[in-house]
Design brief:
Blueprint (H helix, E strand, L loop, with lengths): L1 H26 L9 E9 L14 E11 L3 H30 L7 H17 L4 H59 L5 H20 L2 E5 L5 E5 L6 E3 L6 E6 L5 E7 L2 E4 L5 H36 L13 E2 L8 E2 L18 H13 L1 H41 L3 H36 L1
Antiparallel strand pairs: 1-2, 3-4, 4-5, 6-7, 7-8, 9-10
Helix pairs in contact: 1-9, 2-4, 2-5, 2-6, 2-8, 3-4, 3-7, 3-8, 4-5, 4-6, 6-7, 6-8
Amino acid sequence: MSDLLSIGSSGLAAYRSALNAIGENVANAETPGFSRRKVVLKQSLINAASNIVYREQILFNGVTTGGVQRAWDQFKATEARFAANAAGRAEVRQQWLTGVESALDDGPAGIGSSLTKFFNAATSLAADPNERLGRGAMLTSLADVATAFRNTAEALERVSTGVADSAQLDATAVNNALAALHNLNGTIRTAAPGGSARASLEDQRDQLIDFIAERLDISVSINDDGTARMTSASNSAVTLVGDTTPGLIAMARAADGRISFSVQTNGATQALPVGGGRLAGYLDVASITADRRAALDALAADFVATVNNWSAAGVDANGDPGGNLLEAPGGARSMQALVSDPDLIAAGSPGGPANGNLVALESIRETSSIERRWGNLVASNAQILASARTEASAAASWRDLSYAALDEVTGIDLDYEAAELLRYQQAYTASARIIQVARETIDALFNAVG
């Protein structure tokens, strides 16, 4: 009878644990990062050699729990992290390349339209070079070109600053996650395996790994004690989380806006290669934006030189050699129109017709290719942006499908949990019935003896 009581009580304890796990699953069905729990049940055996009442083949002695098992698939988790890493990089590239496209305004107030208006104003003035209104319109259009260059340069500078600031925020977030993972490793070491608390710690660990993987390409290995070791996927010699202090990522920004990353571990600083994730996206876009700014400055310098050289080759309304009309000492963002007096336009050629220099400007327009070079700059960025959008769409689909596949393993199906709840309730009731039968049997024996 004592064995019946033992079998029944073991069943009550085991199935109560299983019911608690189901309750935890249901309560966290919508909790991000929660992995389904399952209590492992196994039969409890009797040492037949120590109990002469039982024959050797009669070994069953109830049920016992083998701990809480967390639903997980390491292969699918790794695949999802690769996908999130690719999606993070692609999303950053799409976001900030769109900003670059907006900065390279090709609308009515943009550089391209302003250049065309300037050259067209010069062509119109050539028909009547002494028309004061036409001369004023040409100077106004030239000032508009300078304004367009300044506005574009300032917009690109804002994009460059925004990229650097966002990259710094993500680098700081990665540092916080690395420190949290390092501390969590210490807690996991002391947690008893097979418990619900240990499973919760492992959920937190994997959430931190997922967070970092979206921002930085990493390689992760899980030790036998449940702790995580993390290195850079681009250079396995760079340890981010190990047995000692976690890595500390720092960002540096060059004068032209390009950025780079380094990591400090145990007092030693080394370059951090970034091949994926949001940080890699910032790295790419910062470089592209710097190239666009350099191209814009070169275009501005060439346009200033072209206009000033053209002006120097002619004579103004006063018969004096033409002076400089523009300056850009600090690149495109400093371009300024220098002349406001219409009489100072060098419309004529020395010893030639009053519109000779204006007529020559049309051929200079063709040979300088200023407008075409601007169009090529805009088109080049548009092509890169189109590619980035395609990449972002594909990467997002890959990420969503990968996490959906992982969720099939770790997620909570309420219908399944309801069926398991009913099954364990019946088992719990059966265990209680075993105890009741044992008690009734004992009572009957005592009554028979009495």
